[in-house]
Amino acid sequence: MKLYSFLIVILVLSSSTTAECRSKECMPEEFVTHVVAGDGDWWYFYYDSVFNIGTNWFIIVESGATSFNGYISFEFGNNLTKSIDVNLGSGALVEKMENGSISFPGSTFSDEEFNRILYINFTEDGGEQTDAFQLKIQINKPPAEDMIYLWGGMTVFWASIGAYVMYLSNKFRELSDKSGLEDGRREKN
Amino acid sequence: MKYSREIIGLTGFLLVLGTLYFGLIQTGPAKYFTAPNAQKLFYLHVPSGLVTYLAFLMVVGGSAVYLYNKSDYADRLAKCSTELGIVFGFMSLASGTFWMKAEWGGDIVSRFLTDMRLATTLAMWLLYIGYFVYRNQPENSVVKNNAAILGLSGMLMVPLSYLSSRFLRSHHPVIVGTEDQGSLDPSLRIGLYMGLFGFLFIYIFLFNIRMKIEEMEREMLNAKMEKL
Question: For domain A2-140, which CATH number applies: 2.60.40.1930, 3.40.640.10, 3.40.630.30, 1.10.490.10?
Answer without folding.
Answer: 2.60.40.1930
